[in-house]
Structure formats: C-alpha cells, structure tokens
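Most newcomers find our protein records easier to grasp once they have seen one. Sequence and backbone structure share a record, each on its own labelled line. Nothing more is needed to start thinking about how sequence determines fold. As an example, a complete record with its sequence and its structure tokens follows.
=====
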Amino acid sequence: MFESKSGILFIAGVGFFAFAFLSNVVVPVLMFQDLPEETIKQTINSRIMYQFSELSRRYPEPFRDAFGEPTVDGCADALQLGRQVYIGEGCWHCHSQFVRPVSNESRRWGKVAETWEYQNALQRPVMFGTRRVGPDLSRQGGRHGNDWHAVHFYNPQTLLPDSPMPEYPWLFHGAPDKPNKRGLALITYVQWLGSWLDSYPYYEELKSIQSEGY
C-alpha cells in the first residue's frame, strides 16, 4: 500500500495534518501558556470609561435604570452583558473580530491581529466570524459616537441605506434615543473593541481624563 501512489498521498496527507496541528495549535499553546489572562475589569481603561460615562450623559434615565452611576464595576457588568448580547444576536455571523495575515486584510481592516489583544476574559472564545458581510470589528471602538451606534442598531438603513443588517428594536424602549440595558451594554461592548490601542480614535481628547484614575 505504502509503495503505491495512493499510499504516498495518504502518508503525505497525514504528515501535513500533523505539521499543521503542531504549528497552529501545540506551538502557540506552549508559547503563550504562561501569559496571564486579564479579567474584564482589568481591560477597562480611560477610553472605554469615557464612552461609558458619555452614555450616562446622553441617555440619563435609561442609563440610571440599567447601571446607576458610570463606575468601573458598572462598566464591567455592561461589557460582560454586551458581549452576551453580541453573541446572542448573531453579530459574529456577519462580522469578524480577527484580522488575518492573508488576502491583504491589513489594507482593509488595519494591522494583523496580535495574540496579546485576545488574552482576556472578553475574548473567550475569540469571535473569528464566519463571513464578512459587514466590516471586521476588531478595533471598531471610537470610530463612531454612541448616538450613531444607537441609531444604527435601531434601524441601520437610516444611516446606511444599502446595509443588509437587520433592525434590533427590542434593544430599545420604543425609540433610538431610549436604549434599554441590553442596548446600552451592546454599545459599550462595541466601543470597547480596540480601546487597548493608543491609536483609538479621539485618543488625544481622552488623555485629559486619565488623571481621574480609570
């Protein structure tokens, strides 16, 4: 068998599979097994706290009912719930959160994803995505204001007429200016994406609040 063409191809196939498994699974696990994983609270920084606080100013009554005051603990709760909503609503079907080192993806979505960006509780499991109906959201945060996201989740076509994205009116108390707890949490989560980078949009404007201890 092993002297025939089919036998050689079989051995080659098994060998390539073993090599791929070692290089893509075993080696990375060994390389990063000692890298500490951050908790949700440890991922919170001045940039996302600014966005969370801005939500409390823009939507005071819904925010107060959902999270009370814009504290770090409240932000952590919002981020955890926001990720659950993101997964539950199937956002990951059309959006990825991982820029691959292939097909010039870095030209469209920014630099290739790095391991340390995913070493935290909010990236378990990683939202690789199944297709790119919408843009990659790895570093979406800060590119649009909270009010833009509210309108976009309520009725995407209001902002992007050709968008295939469905509406999510159940994330609101009847209007885009009245997001409920799940809506506020989802906006917080989307604004968190990429907040770990110094290139986060509007960063220069946010530097002034770092002294507040967030």
The first helix runs from residue 5 to 32.
